[in-house]
Write a structure and sequence with these properties.
- By secondary structure, the protein is α+β, with helices and mostly antiparallel strands.
- The chain folds into 2 domains: 207 residues, Electron Transport, Fmn-binding Protein, Chain A (Pnp Oxidase, Chain A); 130 residues, UbiD C-terminal domain-like (3-Layer(aba) Sandwich), CATH 3.40.1670.
- The protein has 11 helices and 23 strands.
- The strands form 5 sheets. Strands 5, 6, 7, 8, 9, 10, 11, 14 and 17 form a 9-stranded antiparallel sheet that branches. Strands 19-20-21-23-22 form a 5-stranded mixed sheet, with helices on both faces. The chain has a 4-stranded mixed sheet with strand order 1-2-3-18.
- Helix 4 crosses helix 7, helix 4 crosses helix 8 and helix 8 packs across helix 9.
- The longest helix has 22 residues.
- The mean pLDDT is 96.
- The structure holds manganese (II) ion.
- Manganese (II) ion (MN) binds next to strand 8.
Length: 449
Amino acid sequence: MKPILREWLAKMEQDGMMKRISREVDPINELAAVGKKLEPQYGALFEHVRGSSMPVVTGVITSRDGMAKSMGMSYEELLQDFNHALSNPTPCKVLEKEQGPFAIKENILTGDQVDLGILPACLHHEKDSSRYLTAALCIAKDPETGIRNVCIHRHEIKDRNHLGALLLPRHTNQMFSKAEAMGKPLEIALAIGVHPSLLLASQATTALGVDEFEIAGSLLGEPVELVKCETVDLEVPVESEIIIEGKILPNVREEEGPFGEYPKTYGAKAPRHVIEITAITYRNNPIYHTIIPATMEHLLLGGISREATMMQVIRQATPNVKKVHITPASGCRYHVVIQLDQKHEGEAKNAMFAAFTSSTEVKHVVVVDTDIDIYDMQDVEWAISNRVQAARDVFIIPNAMGNKLDPSSRGGASDKMGIDATIPMSDKRERFQKIHIAGYEDINLKDYL
Ligand code: MN
């Protein structure tokens, strides 16, 4: 299927998942506050945003099932397809000029026309240093190999043609370092208003040298279609709403931040990379997308790719694992709940070891039986309260590698804790059975109220 954001938004609206807001809102604080109140039940399309003619959408995915549905599959299928796509990429299709006209070229601003101020970029949290772009795919090419990389960074609006950026020590940063060593800038293109599948693919855990759009192509079952940029030697998704072209400047660093981040804490101000903008192109009546940090939309993008990888690693250790949930309260990073159809004594512990090895960020792992709903934290707590004896079922490994952003870590070193909340194999299972009202599932309250 073709990854078209507008089609997905129409589907969400049809299904009652997207609220349309016609009252004018301020992109400073107000938009984020309203969007945050609506999520994760609803996404929001703000038709009138002060200071810009562009409408703003947020919450294009707010659940695992929603993400899967945007690609026409179940969540279980999405996890499987995601892992398959990682090892079976589908090359992109670059469309030639004659195959146009392309909507993304309906408006082209270059030179003095470039003004980031036309965008309804939001100030999300009260201590953020500026308005930020939060839903832009960052597309660049390795200056040595020419292979494309796609990811998401936060971008601080500095002035009409400059953005700040936080480039964590990952692929864009590595590619920029190569360019900077040659004394050159790194050309980039930012795509705003893209289909959820492209956002998800950009979060794949891969080696440098894998084009994330090729992973998206495999997920979608057809090549992602791209068109050439105007001022940089890059290609961008033809169905994007807005494209910003520019270059990361060599030997330039300016203060960026603070910015409210996924762990629900602020990332501190520090000298960081600066991008000079060379062009902005957009469709007529473009839809601008903002991801409000630390909402389900934000957390799930990273969480789903982590769950897919983790599921694969744990299944190698023990095939009886049914489901994996990396919880949103932990930023979809630190807490894992595993559902296991335990067949052998000690199997729960093997599943935990595998979960810890799948990502350095994992801190606490709980394993439960198949009668526990791992997405219902009340149910998970019930299992911990009724099936755990701490001296027997809890283990702690001190001082392993963790995540520096965790404020409780010691320079990134972190303890790991496993909680086995499964019924011990040697115990009588009836003693642990949940109460149940016969016929409960068949009752429809509408028939009674
Ligand atoms: Mn990459």
